Amino acid sequence: MFALVETAVADLEKVSRELEPRLLEGADAAELVEVVARGERICASMKARLAHRVQETRVWKGDAYRSGADWLAATTGETIADARRALETAQALEELPATSEAFAAGELSATQAAEIAGAAKDAPGAEGQLLDAAASSSVKGLRDRCREVRAASQPDDAAWARRLHETRRAGEWTDPEGAYNINARLAPDVGARFSAAWNAHTDRIFRQARKAGRREPRAAYLADGLVALAAEGPLKPPEVRVCVDQTALRRGYVTGGERCEISGAGPIPVAMARSLLDDAAITGAGQGRRRHHRGVEFDADHHRGPAPGTRGEVPGVWGQGL
User: Which residues 6+ apart lie within 8 Å of 292 measured at CB?
Assistant: First the structure.
């Protein structure tokens, strides 16, 4: 096995050194990219599975590393976060044979395998449909489907809402070039309000720049919008649109095919939707119409029948506690 892998890597290195892309036709280069990408996916699978074995046997302790992820990051030159994700994926795939086989065959990237493993761990019965989603959609499409699967598989809706709140975090650091960096993880309801306020400033700055004849990447305007939000506060009360099936609201959790989500953010716990709707002080809306108040917009399109606590003139919109 060692000799086979070493020979394959040596051959690949030789090809890489001799490769001269400028001598290729564009179509030939595109075809080779597909071949090389498959090889990259295969190597990613091998690396993850081998690293998981190192993690299991705790060989990394002999080199005074703090964890298997630290060892893998140092060995491969990747970040600790990426190394940890690779190890978590490899461990989860031990219980997901179809995904493990697809990853080993180069049919899935490390990103796709990690997304499927994370969702199928909570909902093993969804493994097949997630593999289909990986084959037929973009990574974003797969992530959206994985979020839907996770949401539908949560055994305790209230516990899910608490966990999203309790795992909030933010960090700041200075990068090697001296620039200030930030990173944050927020519960989706808080994140949606923050995003709405942030993007309002960003859009204003974008319009001002275009009017003045300046053109920069949106990422630059987002940075300016973030600074403006911190300095000036929201331009207006942030608006959040909630789409939820009324049967799920009554029950307290979603089942197959039902929706409970913040538009643009994805699925959320029903307990979180209830809290948002209570805050919205919704009074009622007809089918296909919307009302909003204090920054929360309630979509009536997905509601089926009246619900206890409704105070609107038109059945179908639920505003508990109004």
Answer: 239, 241, 280, 282, 298
The series of mean pLDDT values per 10 residues for the chain, 322 residues long, is: 92 95 95 96 96 93 87 94 94 95 96 95 91 95 91 88 95 95 95 94 97 96 98 91 87 83 88 80 39 49 38 29 26
Please name the residue that has the structure tokens 């019965």: 125
The angle at the Cα of 182, spanning 180 to 185, to the nearest 5 degrees, equals: 180
Element (H, E) at 180: strand 180-185
What is the Cα–Cα distance from 317 to 62, expressed in whole angstroms?
62
Cβ-in-10-Å burial (0-12, 13-18, 19+) of 221 comes to buried
Would strands 240-244 and 296-299 be described as parallel, antiparallel, or unpaired?
A: parallel
Q: 116 near 149, Cβ under 8 Å?
A: no
The whole-number pLDDT of residue 80 equals 92
Q: What pLDDT is attached to residue 300?
A: 43
pLDDT at position 299 is 56
Name the one residue in this structure whose structure tokens are 């929201």. 234
Q: Within the chain, how many helices (H) and strands (E) appear? A: 13, 7
- Tokens describing residue 79: 């970040």
Positive or negative: CA dihedral 146, 148, 149, 151: positive
User: Which tokens go with 57?
Assistant: 């046997």
Amino acid at the residue 190 = V
Q: What is the pTM of this model?
A: 0.72
Does the CA dihedral 77-78-81-83 come out positive or negative? Answer: negative
Q: Which is it for strands 260-262 and 266-267: parallel, antiparallel or unpaired?
A: antiparallel
Query: How far apart (Å, rounded) are the C-alpha atoms in residues 312 and 306?
Result: 10
